[in-house]
Amino acid sequence: MNKYFILGGSVIIILVAGIMYRTFLLPEASRPCSGGITRNFTVTAEKDKWNFVPQNLEAECGDKIVMTVVNEDEYDHGIAIDALGVSQRMPAKSTITVEFTVTQEGEFPYYCSVPCGEGHVDGKLRTHFDMIGTLKVKPARGPAMMGK
Ligand SMILES: [Cu+2]
């Protein structure tokens, strides 16, 4: 048999197997999703508190997130969400906006990406590493619910 015929046939089989896998076998949760709504969140780094408020955000897979991040401090902070490619510096006393689309379910930590020291808040030590929250991305709405 012609070796090019065998080679071409093998490539086609691999391609078809790949498409079948993506379409039928890939678990629902790891499929990228789209077609969500736009959600606006405001997250604030409160003055001399080493926190992000709120600490929990919820969205649905496929949503576009418009996140307004307020830095009330007189020193710099940053906002980062590793898995979503978000990383931006927040100069002192500034407000920035980051936009991204969540295409996977899961829990994604957002945290301060600029070392910003520490201090005592109500008698408790708080540090740069306490500036963390979680964005929880739930499964997308079913197609029947679309457009509601
Ligand atoms: Cu910080």
Automatic annotation (TrEMBL):
The EfeO-type cupredoxin-like domain extends over: 40-115
Q: Pfam families attached here?
A: Cupredoxin_1
Keyword match Membrane: yes
Q: Which UniProt key words apply to this protein? A: Membrane, Transmembrane, Transmembrane helix
Q: Which residues cross the membrane?
A: 6-24
Name of the protein: EfeO-type cupredoxin-like domain-containing protein
User: What species is given as this protein's source?
Assistant: Candidatus Sungbacteria bacterium RIFCSPHIGHO2_02_FULL_51_29
